[in-house]
User: What shape does this take?
Amino acid sequence: MQVRVLGPFEVARDQQSLTPSQPKLRQLFALLALSANSVVRSERLTEELWGPRPPAKATATLQTYVSHLRRLLAADGTAGQRCPTVLHTRHVGYALSVPDKAVDAHRFTELVERGRAELDHGQFEAGARTLRCALGIWRGAALSDVESGPVLSGHVARLEEARVAAIDQLVEVELTLGHHHEVIGELSALVREYPAHEGLHVKLMTALHQAGRRSEALHVFQRVRTTLVDDLGLEPGPQLRRVHRALLVGGSAADTGAAGRPTARTGPAVERPAQLPPDVPVFVGRRTEIAATQALVADADGSAPSVVSVVGPPGSGKSALCVHLAHVVRARFPHGQFYADLAELTCEDALVGFLRAIRGPAAPLPVSAEERVGLFRSWTAGRKVLVVLDNAVTTAGTARLLPSGGGCAAIVGCRSRLPLRGVGLSLELSRWSEDDGIELLASVLGWPRVRRELPAACQLFRLFEGMPLALVASASRLTVRPHWSLSMLVDRLGNERDWLEELANAEVDVLGSVELTCQSLPQGRRSAFYSLAASAAEPVTVDQAAALLETDSRQAESVLESLVEFQLLEVVGAGNGPSVAPFRYRVSPLIRVAAAALAPTAEQSGTDTTPHLRREPELGDEYVMDRVGVGSGTS
Assistant: This one.
């Protein structure tokens, strides 16, 4: 069976027409065909057939229409032959099961994707042929003889947008190849069909100019300008104006900005994405982690992407390690490297950035988030690309940015332990050795300066317990003040309250690193962390934390373990005795100092900042933190 929606609606099997004549049946069949092999919910079908206010018997009538379609699909001239097309009833709707190639819209999409892949690999002639083959499937406006409701209209609009995008891309490739004579007639028809489409008019003007018909190209500009001003109240956009100016001054074809410049394509860019930030000049330490990552990438079995997660407390060097790992293995990913800092971008914006990198800044993108995810996964399925995500905080959002191909890899820097599926290597950053810490200082200050004051360098390392970010900030401070000795800086850091001021640096933000993690916490957990950091200078047990938080042991343990997951607390040992919790929890000095600076004070908020826990019955066993105002009467 063949279902044709790219033009007048037609259904045929073995030269026999099965096209329904009743308008509602045509609507129903067309919508099911465009969603072939997927369930369409009954309420969506009802909305399509009768709008937002369906009649009382709409469900029964829909079932009748479905019965008519089943009889139509079951009609077969060969007795006993099983029909491969089935209309299934699901619990929530209906699904039309047909081979993908049976619906011309699916064939069109497949050919367009193939053509774009060929263009992406620089195969312009082959890509142009494939795109022209895809466009040859169209026989006119999509579903031109079907009365479309609100749901079907959306599908039709997307099909038309895909058609125009494919035409736009094909014409640009043809112009790049110098086939301007072949596209003038086609473009002339298209601008009559789309009189306000500036991109098509730009290409028609370029083709006419390349063919030596400059006066006709200028007439095209006057027509489109009149249309835009009279119908929309808009002046032509910058690209149209640029081409117009080039024609007026008698510039060459290249001056119009289209001919011979494939980088302007609206489809996939020929250039490989290369978004990695620069690596540090000298990377110190983490040799075990680097070797493990290289081994994972080298031993990939090709069935799924290699995923590395990097987890560590604020200031442990996660971001630097992620970027360095990416540079170490990037040669294995010839089709490109993507990078997104999820502290600065939402996952949706990061995905848009990835798609722009592979399709060009002017390329049309799918409207829905799910379609964009599918497009990225389709593009990466047959390629070898590397994706680096820093400051990931949500499992679902991060998963949408991972590549799908077995030859791909992803490196994910996490501010908490995320249960990502498919992680082949989980790197939890441990404390640095003193040798690595001294080497880090020397990489910034130089070995002669560090050797002269090696005891002070060791003291600086121990002061911050080897936290890389603090060491880099210290070294940066000494770099801009070469007249300071290491001993002098150590003396100035003798009081923890002075740390943030002494380590202030425009490029090494110690406080900002801790703040990013705190912002990822729910408000209640954040309040509890500030309270613990202020009161627990030494490791605390669960019972001691419960006393500080004014709650019971079970709730306190939940808070402590959550903060451990977010790398703000560390587990340092086991207690003794049957009534003592088995673990003790500790806040590192640097994180404790940052927390003191970030925590709201009673004077600022006008409230008692002691966090109290209240039970939320609707949340089952989940507890949330609450701030209780002084004198409010709340207990």
Summary: DSSP finds 27 helices and 15 strands in the chain. The longest strand covers residues 386-392.
